[in-house]
C-alpha cells in the first residue's frame, strides 16, 4: 500500500519539480524589460503572471497545513485584482526572489512529507465532504497547481525573442 | 491496494478530462479567423496548436498500447515541423473534428482500463528500464500530456477577444 502511494507521490512531485525548473530556467533568460511586456497584445504582463503564480503557490502553505503565506500582501494584488489595476507592484527583482523563496520552502516541506500524509484532506475541504470525495487530498492540490503553472508558463514563454 | 490505485487514476483522469473540456469550450468560442491568428506576434498560430495537440494525443494510442494513430499524417505536419513551414494544412473544420475524435476514442478506452493496468509500462520504455523506473507507467503518460495540454491551452486562450 505504501509502496503504491510512494510511487504515485513521486509521479506528481516529479512533474511539479520539472515544471518549476522549466519556469526558473525561463525566468533566468527574461530581462526586466521583457517581463514588463504583455504576453500578447492587451493581455497580462509577464510581471503580473510572475506575481500571480507566486501568490497562488504561497497559498499552498495554508492549504497543505504547512504554515502561513510568506507574502500575504500578494493575494490582494495578484489574485483578487487583474493586471494593470494596481500601481506600485513589487519590483521584478523582489518578485523573482519571492518566487524562489516560496517554491524553495514548499520544496523543502515536500521532501519530508510521508507518502500517507499526502492522501489526507487539505484545509479547504470539510471532513464530511472529504469522506465522500477522498481524491480531494493534499496531493491533488499539487497536481492542480502544477497544471495551473503549466498554463501560465505557456504564456510566459511567449515573452522570449 | 486496488482502492488506492483507483483513487490515483481518478485524480489524474479527472484533471485530464477537465482540461480537455476547457479546451473544447474554448474552441467552440473561437472563430476560424481567430484560429488563423498567431497567439502572440511571430509565434504559433491557433490552427497549428490545435493540430499539434491533436497529433500529440493521437500518439497516445500507440504509447498506451490501445491501437494505432487515427491521423498518422499529422505527426509530420504538427510535431516534426514548426508552424508556417508546410502549406496546405487540414482545414479548421477537419482539425476540430479530428481533435474531438481522438479525445473521444481515448476517453472511451480510459473509462474501461482497469486501475492496475495504468501502472504497467507504456510502449516506449523497455522492461529493464521500467523495472528501475516504475513511475514511467501508462498513467504517467496521461499526467504528462495533460500538462502539455495546459501549457498550450494557456496560449490558445490568448486568441479570445
Based on CA atoms alone, the radius of gyration of chain A comes out at 17 Å
Multimerization state: homodimer
Cα-to-Cα separation, first versus last residue of chain A: 48 Å
**Helical residue percent band of chain A:** 55-70%
Can you give a write-up of this model?
Chain A is an all-alpha fold. Chain A has a single domain (3-160), classed as Four Helix Bundle (Hemerythrin (Met), subunit A). Chain A has helices at residues 2-28, 32-35, 46-58, 60-63, 74-79, 92-112, 115-118, 127-132, 138-156. The longest helix of chain A is centred in the first third of the chain and has 27 residues, at 2-28. The model of chain A has no long low-confidence stretch (mean pLDDT 97).
Task: Throw out a few tags for this protein.
161 residues; mainly alpha; Four Helix Bundle (Hemerythrin (Met), subunit A); 9 helices
Chain-wise SSE layout:
The structure is a homodimer of 161-residue chains.
Chain A: H1 2-28, H2 32-35, H3 46-58, H4 60-63, H5 74-79, H6 92-112, H7 115-118, H8 127-132, H9 138-156
Question: Would you summarize the structure shown here?
Answer:
2 copies of one chain form a homodimer. With 161 residues, the first copy, chain A, is mainly alpha-helical.
